[in-house]
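During the reporting period, our protein records have gained a structure token line. One record among many is quoted in full directly below:
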Amino acid sequence: MNLTQENKIKIVDDIMGSGKSRWAINYINSHPEKKFLCVVPFLPECERYKKETIIEMFDPKLWGTKKKSFINLIEKNDNIVTTHALIQKMDLTILELLRSRDYTLIIDECLEVLAPYKISNDDRKIIFREHLVSLDNDGFLIWNEEKNNYKGAFKEIKELCSFKSLMGFKNEDDNIAKILMWNFPVDFFKCFKDSYILTYLWNGSIQKSYFDIHSIQYEKYMLDKDGKEIIPHSRELELRKRKDRVKLLHIYEGKFNDIGNKVGKSNPLSKSWYERQIKAKNFSLLEQIKKNTENYFRTVTKSRSADNMYTVFKPFRKYIKGRLYSNCHVACNAKATNNYSQKKYLAYLINEFISPDIKHFVNHYQIEFDEDLFALSALLQWIWRSQIRNGEPIELYLPSERMRNLLLNWINEVR
């Protein structure tokens, strides 16, 4: 898919704690003549940008709904800082407004740009068999113009089709898409002459695959050794920065890890593995994970509940939570927040994989997705919610053999 794009997007790919957000704020302060749209993961980061920039920045919460407030701010050509959650509610009105302005875009952490669209198999077949939609040559769902007066149950699909926000693919002998994928509107990235995305391990991100699918051009940068300027990405400098941090990581090696060892084709502690235990009513392994985690905090770290944090997939928290750590569950996809920067002792009780539907979708476009790098990125982002972000050492219980080896390989590359 060839898209008109004047400038390549700058990917600032640098390790957590390197000062990417500080660089962005300094960049804004150095260019008061520009107009900025900043997109950050959470509301506290909005407050930080508003407080630390010398220009007046607004977040969309002044009146009415946030979406209406966002539109109002764009119409007034104000500097804006908002969250990932709001920007993902993009529609045709907002896209047309942004295209008419001259904003510089800064995105802190990768956006969620692909997600399976929830629709029943019966409804998926109906919209194609009734010729409400079709697929164009690039895989976008197109609403049938003859059905433009349609106001039925599939009106959301009609709206999403209006700004190319649904995709799918089909077999050659079938006219019905196998899956439907919500797709962040590609035209959004054509609304800006200057764009920056701040992240780490870009090559393992879903957004990188999304850019490759849509032929969105980008260049990789990082911060220089002083954190003041961005420079072309350097593997050598990245390894030097990494070396300063890995010495703070202390990973548990002992019998409590046995439950995460791979046997045959199984993937212990993956989401599907947890689901199988529940479906089979085999609670003994879940109870063992709970006991192991409690014993780790009680006998290995000998730590207080206030110093501990853990994660498990949300649906399984009630089976895993224990007395010494139940009050500090940190979501496995947590990014950017400083709320847990006092935590010293960690338990990461999952084995991370990409959604099978997203993997299938990306593979359809002959894009090679690095699932191990994706998992490592998620793990590192989670670890860096703790006091390691302040340069303080942490101890980690990581029972998944696969996840532990990914982290150890990342550490050993600089030893």
Notes: The chain has a mean pLDDT of 93. The longest strand covers residues 35-40.
